[in-house]
Write a structure and sequence with these properties.
It is built from 15 helices and 24 strands. It is α+β, with helices and mostly antiparallel strands. It folds into 5 domains: 84 residues, Phosphorylase Kinase, domain 1; 182 residues, Transferase(Phosphotransferase) domain 1 (Transferase(Phosphotransferase), domain 1, Orthogonal Bundle), CATH 1.10.510; 65 residues, Trypsin Inhibitor V, Chain A (2-Layer Sandwich); 61 residues, Trypsin Inhibitor V, Chain A, CATH 3.30.10.20; 71 residues, 2-Layer Sandwich (Trypsin Inhibitor V, Chain A). A 6-stranded antiparallel β-sheet has the order 1-2-3-4-6-5, with helices on one face. The protein has a 3-stranded antiparallel β-sheet with strand order 7-8-9. It has a 3-stranded mixed β-sheet with strand order 11-14-12, covered by helices on one side. Helix 3 packs antiparallel against helix 5 and helix 7 packs antiparallel against helix 8.
Amino acid sequence: MQQKILNNRYELEQKLGEGGMARVYRGRDLRLNRPVAIKVLHSQYASDTGFLQRFQHEAQAVANLRHPNIVDVYDVGQDGDIHYIVMEYVPGSDLKALILRQAPLPIEQAVTIAEAVARGLEAAHRLGMIHRDIKPQNIIVGDGGVVKITDFGIAKSKMSTAMTETGVTFGTADYISPEQARGLPATPQSDIYALGVTLYEMLTGRLPFTGDSSVVVAMQHVNTEPPPLRMYNPRVPPQLEGIVLRAISKEPADRPASAREFAQQLLTYRNSGEQETVIRPAPRPAQPVQRTPSSTTAPRPVLPPPRPAVAEARPNTSSGNFGGFLLGLLLLGGVLGLVYLFAIGAFDGLFSLANGAINRPTALPAATTTSTSTLPQVPVPDVVGKTEAEARTQVQGAGLGVFVAEPRHSDTITAGLVMEQFPPAQMPVTQAASSVVTLTLSLGPELIDVPDVQRTRAADARNLLIAAGFQVQVQEEPSTLSEGFVLRQDPVNVKLPRGQTVTIVVSIGNKVVVPEITGLSEADARARIEAAGLFVSFVDQQGCDKLGDLCNRFGPGLIVSSDPRPGTRVERGSGVTLGQRKP
């Protein structure tokens, strides 16, 4: 940024980071002589009146929010077309950097950080403020261990309008709640979900959901259950794992009812310690009571009741032997009787009836098989690519039946033609009306809505278009729009078949290309450079002793070179040095 002091008060010292909406600088309040953090909005939002009104409203609302775990907002201002927010500067690093360096974090540290963030969210939610973008990048861990939530400048209050009215989708796909991913408004439970994902990452060193694009990740938040934390870090106690998994439940109603409840769950866990890792001492054996003259009130031991006398009856050997003898005689008599009945043919009729019942049903299929096996077989006609009428004529002409299934989209078969048949062509089938050929007609290529990715980051725009099924062609162009954002796209607001190409024009920032001026006179070179938005800072006249072969190519007084070279991108308004052969 060329301007270093805003409104003669806030000096920009060093760029700390950049997001989709703004750049953040470490700065100094010259009036109060204190360090501050200054968030400067990207230039494309300066022309959006509705966005700026909401932005200023939200920032002013956050300025009234005071909590030890929330970065204070000092001021909201404008200097020309530059809009900025002045915030408390917290020396330290963001939680994402800490995770990348040390994850998985010690359990006590991770739980303490999450509890502090939950306390800050509790204060914000009480005032109707929803952050909507809780993630490690927006959590500062100070040098003294203090934990603070930042980036409340784009939060949503109970008085603000719909989430996407500005055309900007808030939230990061890695931490976005399922309801936000579905396009529903954010609620306090959305912040709890994002904090649960952050705690998951602190404890495991990885995110619960990953993918090739933000769209893929967002859909996993909606449809996929997260892997258990102990799969990646077995040291996470089951009790803590349950707390985290509840916080990232798909349904908001299944999460903690409030940030306060979530903070209390974490505090209770911290106070109880990691119970699963503590070995409990064995209970001491009961000591006998020593009766002394002074211990007349000591309880008497309670004896168990006597066991019933019938609990273990002794067997009567004499009566048992006699009963076994009688049972043996009865069994022997029964067997001898059955042998006699078989011998005289008493069961012959019964077996004849059974044989008839068995033989009758098996005779019918044999006759049926004989009759159907005499029908001829024919090959199934090839009707793929035919119209429905043509396919019917051919299939029915072969003596087969026709069934038309639900039509489907096809990128290769014209709408209205057969795209698929079953059984496949040339397969032999029995020639009968009951032998049916199923036809599937084509609806033609599926037309997909082209997403509007204008004024979004080029990388996000490309991922979104690819996920929707399109090819992407990227062109670059200088613009006052911040570098790396999409200026425009072609086409937009239409439906296209899958696989078509969408062109996006990406801003290279407020830069221009140094024009080609070699071989021109000094006057013509100056005119071309000024027309490009640059100026000539110096003309270096050079003799043939320095130019070498160039002396033979360019006549006296002509421009032989420039610094920066032609084709180089430079900031608009930069100076160009011309190399000129001495006249």
